[in-house]
Design goal:
Layout lengths: L7 H6 L13 E3 L12 H4 L6 H4 L2 E5 L9 H4 L7 E3 L4 E8 L2 E10 L10 H7 L5 E4 L1 H6 L6 E8 L4 E5 L1 H4 L8 H4 L3 E2 L5 H8 L8 E2 L7 H5 L4 E5 L3 H7 L9 E4 L9 E7 L3 H24 L2 H12 L9 H13 L5 E2 L2 E2 L4 H17 L10 H4 L13
Parallel strand pairs: 2-5, 2-6, 9-10, 9-11
Antiparallel strand pairs: 1-3, 3-4, 4-5, 6-13, 7-13, 8-11, 8-12, 14-15
Helix pairs in contact: 13-14
């Protein structure tokens, strides 16, 4: 399945058609944009033609799920007068930096149920109107043979993917390193790359894996001895605050802390368009980097914007300000967004090379068409990144 939010609870509540290019229909408008205050001098450089001359009239980004906090950097760039299209499940508005219109518009298209659970890379190759997409590093490796994309900046320095358990069953000191010895059933969604990694590392036995997870909390509630996948910026809050049959804390560990550490939500471009999009990306990527730093520092206004956008489309699963604020706080607390080597939204070459070298053979063995000899530099580029952009 390999979605960022592969949850039945969400999917059952959200029905959507494939996203189609075209004029906005069934729209609602917003007047309160998210904050995108900069500290790097970008605001002084931007103006009506700053992006318009090199990026065209509209930059279309395919998201992996419906609007949520871990996409906050992009939503913070939506200016006043944005419109929500309930037919294409997208939002479009002027791309604004520090209140200044950059001369282009930004369209953010929902993924997951809204595109029939197709992958972002498949959408990018099927629809030429899509300029960029959010793709996780492991998905980039899986798609590298037939739908190759190149990451230009990550919204998340580390993935929020977790394995969670009932502390009453396993205690708060239980860790992923104890999975194999525990014999516990590990319930995950189908086609999750991290599962193959866990098995390859001997952290879990293949016989323990149950791939029936589709997001419903019913199994976990009924059988709290299972271990279940989730995301640190979502499920812990939901189980404690919104799932009435549970309403208590869960314990969890980030897969990052067990050694599985991909960059996540990478803003990516089709590999065959990298050269032609370079002039746009040279200006756009530092803006996204700064927006990432600003959002994690002060997410309040953008969270209100995201909640308002979600509330404008009845096909979306409800998203509360409480969950948005929790998610933003977790991204900061767990350092899922951080200034790695002093730079927000950069790539560490040693880290990308090591991850591709490790995961390439694992994913190839699972059936992905991964080219032989694939390197980190084939999938990630730092040519557009401004290394001076750190946390405000």
């Amino acid at each position: 399945m390999s979605r960022f939010r592969p949850t039945v609870r969400r999917a059952a509540a959200a029905t959507g058609a494939l996203l189609l290019a075209g004029p906005l229909a069934a729209c609602s408008s917003g007047a309160t944009p998210g904050s995108s205050s900069t500290t790097s001098g970008l605001a002084q450089a931007t103006g009506k033609k700053f992006l318009g001359d090199v990026c065209g009239k509209n930059v279309v980004v395919q998201l992996q799920w419906q609007p949520q906090a871990d996409m906050g950097a992009l939503f913070s760039l939506l200016g006043p007068g944005y419109k929500v299209d309930t037919r294409t499940h997208s939002v479009t508005g002027p791309l604004v930096v520090d209140g200044k219109d950059t001369g282009t518009r930004l369209t953010l298209r929902a993924g997951g149920p809204a595109i029939g659970f197709q992958s972002v890379t498949s959408q990018m190759y099927a629809d030429d109107s899509i300029n960029l997409g959010l793709v996780h590093a492991d998905q980039m490796i899986s798609a590298s043979g037939n739908q190759k994309v190149v990451g230009v900046t990550p919204l998340l320095t580390h993935s929020p993917t977790i394995l969670m358990w009932d502390p009453a069953a396993y205690g708060t000191s239980f860790t992923i390193s104890k999975l194999a010895a525990s014999g516990a059933t590990v319930v995950v969604a189908k086609d999750q790359a991290f599962v193959a990694w866990l098995v390859a590392k001997g952290l879990v036995r293949k016989s323990q894996i149950d791939t029936s997870y589709a997001g419903s909390p019913a199994r976990f509630v009924a059988d709290p001895k299972i271990i279940q996948q989730g995301y640190s910026d979502a499920e812990p809050y939901e189980y404690e605050h919104t799932i009435s049959a549970w309403k208590k804390p869960v314990s969890y560990q980030l897969l990052r802390d067990a050694g599985y550490d991909p960059y996540a939500a990478d803003l990516s471009v089709r590999a065959d368009r990298l050269t032609s999009y370079a002039p746009c990306l040279k200006k756009l990527v530092p803006i996204v980097q700064q927006a990432t730093a600003n959002y994690i520092t002060d997410p309040a206004a953008t969270n209100r914007l995201i909640v308002k956008v979600v509330g404008s489309d009845s096909s979306y699963i409800p998203y509360t300000i409480g969950e948005a604020n929790y998610a933003a706080a977790e991204l900061k607390k767990d350092r899922l967004v951080e200034a790695e080597h002093g730079t927000v939204g950069g790539y560490d070459k040693n880290r990308t090379d090591a991850f591709v070298k490790e995961m390439g053979p694992i994913l190839a063995a699972q059936g992905s068409a991964v080219p032989s000899g694939l390197k980190g530099s084939d999938l990630f580029t730092t040519q557009f990144i401004d290394p001076s952009i750190g946390m405000p």
